[in-house]
Structure formats: C-alpha cells, structure tokens
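Why should sequence recovery work at all? Because a backbone constrains its sequence more than one might expect. Tight turns favour small or flexible residues, buried strands favour hydrophobic ones, and helices have their own preferences. The token representation captures these environments compactly. In the example below, the structure is given first.
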C-alpha cells in the first residue's frame, strides 16, 4: 500500500533527481522509495555506517572515470577550457 508523504528538498537536488529518474525510466517517487529501502534495509545504525561505495552508487549519475596517467599542467588546462565551449 502506498502512503503519501510530503517532504522538502533543495530545488537543485530535486531537478537533478528528476533528470536522473527520467533517464532511468522511473518516477521520482519510486527512486526515492528505492534509495530509502536500500538505506534502511542494511545493518546500518547511521549514515556514517553506510559503506561509501554503496552510498555513492545510489546517488551518482554515472560511472566514475579514473585517470591513471598524470597529465601536464598545460594539457590539463587545455582540456578544461575546451570542455567549457
């Protein structure tokens, strides 16, 4: 049985969450329900006990990209400014 709950979030967070839910073909309500279920179903007495990898996976918008090669400062600067175009 569904229960209606009124909660408040920062507008920026809500907009990001709506886009994420839409990309994943799920309603915002079901996304929040899923995250709450995952968070509360474990043996976690607080958010500090929730493994960081689980938490990041639940709220991230995509896979993390790790760079293993060091880039020169010039290359990093060039990459940064080209991404802003």
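From this structural description, the recovered sequence reads:
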């Amino acid at each position: 049985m569904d229960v209606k709950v009124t909660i408040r979030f920062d507008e920026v967070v809500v907009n990001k969450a709506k886009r994420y839910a839409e990309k994943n073909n799920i309603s915002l309500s079901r996304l929040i329900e899923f995250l709450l279920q995952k968070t509360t179903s474990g043996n976690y007495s607080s958010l500090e006990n929730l493994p960081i990898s689980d938490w990041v996976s639940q709220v991230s918008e995509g896979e993390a990209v790790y760079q293993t090669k060091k880039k020169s400062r010039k290359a990093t600067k060039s990459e940064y400014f080209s991404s802003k175009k």
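A few observations help interpret the result. The chain is about 55% helix and 0% strand.
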